[in-house]
Amino acid sequence: MRIALIAHDRKKEEIVQLAMAYESILREHELYATGTTGLRIMEATSLQVTRFLSGPLGGDQQIGAMIARNEMDLIIFLRDPLTAQPHEPDIIALLRLCDVNKIPFATNMGTAEVLLKALERGELRWREVVREEEQA
């Protein structure tokens, strides 16, 4: 499964903690992240992460392009709902693309943990079927 890990500045420590706590699950998958988030995860864990640009500089859009091609299977985007984000339209576009392509999208730690546990139990394998159908 291809998993994108994204976090606003005030949520970066949380996503690093999430990656550390679920490293054994995440290591079995292809990981992608926006710039600083990916670097911090790699520094704190043994996980390999394909890094894109910083979110506001186009990283969200790079991940969005993969979502549009149905090349992502799970998005964890720990958002800071209390701080205005200049790239909010990019974030809304990611949500819309995930809805169109039936891609699970977590925006907070609680939902992220539920999805990672489901991933561990094999409950997201249906994404492989959806991805194959879309590409056929």
UniProtKB/TrEMBL annotation:
What does the entry list as the binding residues for substrate? 8, 12, 34-37, 54-55, 87
Q: Name one GO molecular function term.
A: methylglyoxal synthase activity
Instruction: Indicate yes or no for the key word Lyase.
Output: yes
Alphabetically sorted, this entry's keywords are: Lyase
Has keyword Ion transport? no
> Quick one: a GO cellular component term?
cytosol
CDD domains, A to Z: MGS
| MGS-like domain segment(s) | 1-136
Q: Where is the active site?
A: 60
Catalysis: reaction(s): dihydroxyacetone phosphate = methylglyoxal + phosphate
What top-level branch of life does the organism fall under?
A: Bacteria
Stated EC number for the protein is 4.2.3.3
Per the UniProt entry, what is one GO biological process?
Answer: methylglyoxal biosynthetic process
Q: Which InterPro entries match?
A: Methylgl_synth, Methylglyoxal_synth_AS, MGS-like_dom, MGS-like_dom_sf
HAMAP family xref list? Methylglyoxal_synth
| Chain's role | Catalyzes the formation of methylglyoxal from dihydroxyacetone phosphate.
Q: Which family does it belong to?
A: Belongs to the methylglyoxal synthase family.
| PANTHER family xref list | METHYLGLYOXAL SYNTHASE (PTHR30492)
> What is this protein called in UniProt?
Methylglyoxal synthase
